[in-house]
Each structure stands twice: as structure tokens, then as C-alpha cells.
């Protein structure tokens, strides 16, 4: 799995980030050009982070069954696993376009961002536990391929849970708050700041 550098945005981290970005404060006055230059500078700094993580989840799943019930029957073999998945979602800041920020004549600031995405679904081997196994008759032990098939089903369950929890909409809601605050610190009226995902 590809693990790239990223930055996690929690409430406290959000305040710290905005304080850091605010180190390039506006000078006296409300000059439109200065506001725009400051906003673009802050966007550039964020792009250096590569990833901004707005949502983190730890999901626990029981896998080994068809239709996500408890038992998975492989002939006359039954097996059950529990697994823990660590999920992160946010914005890949490298995808923010150079013309993402548009300032209208009425000082409305429109920032267009890429949709949030799931960065990682990490299922550590240490958190995959063999809970139950029953082999009857003259059957052999489960093969590696059979076990892998059960765990693959568990990964599908994790993906289904991600959609059910609406992790992407949650991440985008937090991203909107973050970027609106960033534009506000650059000098724009929050009521005239619009964040668009596309």
C-alpha cells in the first residue's frame, strides 16, 4: 500500500495551521491585491504538504461469511476472522489547480478544490485475528487461497462500511470549514467565500 506524506487536520491542528499560515499577515489596509497574494501564498504552502487528512476512522469487521453474516462455508469448512482497518480521507493538495482561486469584482472569493478521497485503508497483519474454524469429515485444512478469499471479503466489507459512513462527505465538510477560515484570515469576508468541490 502506498503511504505518502500527509498532514492530519484535527480541531487543534486546524488552529495551529491557520496560525502558521497567518505568519504572513496583511499589512495595514484592506488592499485587494494583497489579500489575493496572501491567499495564493497560503494555498501554495498547503500544496507542499501533499496531503491534508480531514477524517480518520478505525473500523472493526468480522469477515468470513456470505452476505456479511457470521459464517462462511467453504464446502464443509467454516472459518471466521476479525480485522481492524485504519482509514484516512482528505484532499490531495497536489491536485489543486493554479487557477483554483478566483476573485470576483465584488470581492467574492471562489476556491475550487478536488473532491476528497480515501488515502489509506490499512489492515495490519497484527490486527487480523483468527476467531473460529471448523473442519468436518475428511476435509483438509483451509488452504492459503481459501484464507485469502475470506480476508478479501473482509476488505470488501470495509469498503462498504466506508460508503455507509459517508466518510467523503464528512471530509469535505471539514475541508470547507478549514479553507473558508484560511480565506478569512487572508482578509476575505467569510460570507463572500465559496468553496467548490469538483
Structure description:
- This protein is α+β, with helices and mostly antiparallel strands and 198 residues long.
- It has one domain.
- 34% of the residues lie in helices and 31% in strands.
- The strands form 2 sheets. Strands 1, 2, 3, 4, 7 and 8 form a 6-stranded mixed sheet that branches. It has a 3-stranded mixed sheet with strand order 5-6-9, with helices on one face.
- The chain is rod-shaped.
- Mean pLDDT is 76; it is low at 1-7, 23-29 and 66-74.
At a glance:
This protein has 198 residues and is α+β, with helices and mostly antiparallel strands. The chain contains four helices and nine strands.
Chain-wise SSE layout:
Elements: E1 7-8, H1 11-21, H2 32-47, E2 51-63, E3 72-74, E4 77-92, E5 101-103, E6 109-113, E7 117-122, E8 128-135, H3 144-164, H4 167-185, E9 193-197
Parallel strand pairs: 1-2, 6-9
Antiparallel strand pairs: 2-4, 3-4, 4-7, 4-8, 5-6
